[in-house]
Design a protein that fits this description.
Blueprint lengths: L1 E3 L4 E4 L9 E4 L7 E5 L5 E8 L9 E7 L2 E7 L19 E8 L5 E7 L6 E2 L1 E6 L3
């Protein structure tokens, strides 16, 4: 089950296709977006969160909460360049990657926090389950 927090904007990044073509945001410029996933099977996962708008300063700081643990401290690129438009995806540029543990009956909450931008954004999220 997926629950996305209130949002009222969507936009696209020129010349991109797939997961990085579009993003969601909130026009209020006063809220962070969050996504709650329930009923994810227990185990360890790599989580890839794509979160960047169409301006050099429209990056996001990503936080993940799972089973009482908060994973934080990683952001997408905000160096004044347009390197985030590269089609060669790299961690810390267009996305961040965390390795998390999911416990039975424990939801995972991913929050895109306003970093250099007044907006918080989400482009795409990917979960890769690690072998047990």
């Amino acid at each position: 089950k997926l629950e996305l927090s209130e949002n009222d904007g969507e936009w696209g990044i020129t010349d991109h296709v797939g997961v990085y073509h579009a993003y969601l945001y909130h026009n209020c410029r006063c809220v962070d977006l969050s996504l709650k996933m329930s009923y994810l099977p227990a185990g360890a996962y790599e989580v890839y969160v794509f979160a960047h708008g169409d301006a050099p300063d429209q990056n996001a700081a990503i936080e993940i909460q799972s089973a009482g643990t908060t994973y934080s401290g990683k952001s997408t690129l905000n160096d004044g360049s347009y390197r985030y438009r590269s089609h060669d995806y790299e961690s810390g540029n267009q996305y961040v990657k965390y390795t998390i543990v999911v416990e039975p009956d424990s939801p995972v909450v991913i929050t895109s926090k306003r970093a250099g931008s007044e907006y918080s954004m989400l482009n795409a999220i990917q979960f890769k389950r690690l072998e047990q």
